[in-house]
Structure formats: C-alpha cells, structure tokens
Design brief:
Blueprint: H1 2-13, E1 18-22, H2 25-32, H3 42-52, E2 58-62
Parallel strand pairs: 1-2
Helix pairs in contact: 1-3
C-alpha cells in the first residue's frame, strides 16, 4: 500500500524519469513482471502498474534493508 501511495503521489507531482526503491523483493518482482500477479495483493500491484504507466519513465529496484539504517 505504501508503494502504491508513493507512485500515486509521483504521478501527480513529478514530470521526469524516476527510480522507485523497495526492500520488498516480492513487490519489486510483481511490479517489474509483465504478467498479472496472483498474490493476495495482486490488485494493488495492478493498480500501481496502471499508475506507473502515467509516469514519463519509471524504474523499480530492490534495495537492502541495511541501506535504511
């Protein structure tokens, strides 16, 4: 849900290429996949992908939790 909210805010305010980062490998994989997610939260992934299509250019990367410390 946090990722979806972030991408929605970016779509409203950012008019340039962006890089989105998450420490959740499953979320990153779902967002980078060309297939529909079959996870319980697949609807949220689909909604985030739809919003991402409104952005100029977006990349989604997996980062380590240690990076936040």
């Amino acid at each position: 849900m946090a990722f979806l909210e972030g991408v929605q805010l970016a779509a409203n305010w950012v008019q340039m290429p962006i890089i989105l980062e998450s420490d959740n490998a499953k979320v990153v994989a779902g967002l980078n996949s060309t297939q529909d997610s079959r996870a319980d939260w697949g609807v949220i992934i689909a909604e985030a992908k739809a919003v991402m299509r409104c952005l100029v250019q977006v990349q989604v990367h997996k980062i380590d939790k240690e990076r936040f410390k």
